[in-house]
Specification:
By secondary structure, the chain is α/β, with parallel strands linked by helices. The protein contains 13 helices and 12 strands. 36% of the residues lie in helices and 15% in strands. α6 links the parallel β2 and β3. The structure holds pyridoxal-5'-phosphate.
Length: 394
């Protein structure tokens, strides 16, 4: 089946939908067993059907079945109450005291916090590596390096990572690779498991839910690792709300059309911004000005609506004049919904391996489904406001 068809049909088993189009929201803690034999059978085979709410209901299973199929090379997966929980839950499941973990310097901020501040309390050591290292990552390996985290493109700064090269080094050293595949909408734009990752983790909060109204995370593992990962996940009690899983299922059905529109509009706006006099360069993986662009061309099937813009003049605090007064682009965390967003960003203080040096300040844009003429008008006015606020200063 082609992917567009899969997005429509995956996970809609008749025993879950009972004759309607969508699986309903099954809300459950207690599941009832008919008799002693059924109870005993369920105890021996808790994955065979309904067992206890924590192990999910058909609403969850429907979404998981779809997400695993979309992540080519996936064996099994599970849902988490947020993307960050999927990351922390996966890392805790795969690592133990005494292990060393490698994390890209461009990693999502909360992941950086979890790995560098929380994991040491469990005896797990983290060090950061240059996201553009490729196979040079071999120099960062230690005797006890057990896992490499990859996030491509990087949060805020969009470096595209050479996952196959990193995975080859990791495999030779007996280390696992976990990829944060959020930007690629969990397998749709980049098949990280086929490229060498052992587990793909992503925030469904972004494009899968797609409407900025629910938090949800997912982890999909290669078949060899799936049972171990799932056993640990069950043992630690991770579960997600069936209502949020249902919202994600609803989002999934239209993911292809939404993503294509986000991609086309974001590229149009990124190219338009590149020609603006106020802009130093655009950090969009599909454009040559983005570090790792050639890897993007090799490994990705498309882009989403999220990219960065580096301005020529001014500094982080000057961005107030840019963001204040925007009519359509609103300021807020997260992305992947139908609406356009703008975020002032300063990666300088958090970088430890590859210092962030740029001509001017950085803003991150998420291009929504609005008309691009309206979006350009909003951005043009913002850039003019920004320049006017700087004139006389420099
Ligand atoms: C948003 C995001 C997350 C976290 O997802 P939440 O659902 O917000 O917890 C993790 N990784 C990346 C790359 C993200 O953009």
């Amino acid at each position: 089946m082609k992917e567009k068809t899969e997005l429509v049909h995956l996970g809609r088993r008749p025993e879950w939908t009972h004759g309607i189009v969508n699986p309903p929201v099954y809300r459950a803690s207690t599941c009832l067993f008919e008799d002693f034999a059924a109870f005993e059978h369920a105890n021996r085979n808790p994955d065979d059907g309904l067992y206890y709410g924590r192990r999910g209901t058909p609403t969850h299973w429907s979404l998981i079945e779809a997400l695993v199929a979309l992540e080519k090379g996936g064996g099994d997966g599970w849902l988490f109450p947020s993307g960050l929980a999927a990351l922390s839950g996966t890392l805790l499941a795969l690592l133990e005291a005494g292990d060393h973990l490698l994390v890209p310097d461009s990693v999502y901020g909360p992941t950086r916090h979890f790995t560098s501040r929380i994991l040491p309390r469990y005896g797990i050591e983290t060090s950061f590596y240059d996201p553009l290292a490729g196979d040079r990552i071999v120099d960062d390996f230690r005797k006890n390096t057990k896992l490499v985290l990859v996030e491509s493109p990087g949060s805020l700064t969009f470096e595209v990572q050479d996952l196959p090269a990193i995975a080859r080094v990791a495999r030779a050293r007996g280390a696992m690779v976990v990829a944060d595949n959020t930007w690629a909408a969990g397998g749709l734009l980049c098949p990280v498991l086929e490229l060498g990752a052992d587990v793909s983790v992503h925030a469904c909060t972004k494009y899968v839910v797609g409407h900025s109204d629910a938090m949800l995370g997912a982890a999909v593992a290669r078949p060899q690792l799936a049972a171990r990962l799932k056993a640990h996940i069950f043992a630690t009690g991770w579960t997600a709300s069936p209502d949020d899983a249902w919202l994600a299922l609803r989002g999934l059905r239209t993911l292809d059309v939404r993503l294509k529109r986000h991609e086309a509009q974001a590229l149009e706006i990124a190219r338009w911004l590149e020609d603006r006099p106020e802009v130093a360069h655009v950090l969009h993986p599909a454009m040559p000005s983005c570090p790792g662009h050639e890897i993007f061309v090799r490994d990705f099937r498309g882009a989403c609506g999220l990219f960065g813009v580096v301005l020529k003049r001014g500094g982080y605090r000057d961005l107030a004049a840019l963001v204040d007064g925007m009519k359509l682009f609103r300021m807020g965390f997260s992305w992947g919904g139908f609406e356009s967003l703008i975020l002032p960003a300063d990666p300088t203080p958090i970088r430890t391996v590859r210092p962030w040096r740029a001509q001017g300040p950085l803003v991150r844009l998420h291009i929504g489904l609005e008309d691009t003429d309206d979006l350009k008008e909003d951005l043009a006015a913002a850039l003019e406001r920004y320049e006017a606020s700087l004139s006389g200063v420099s």
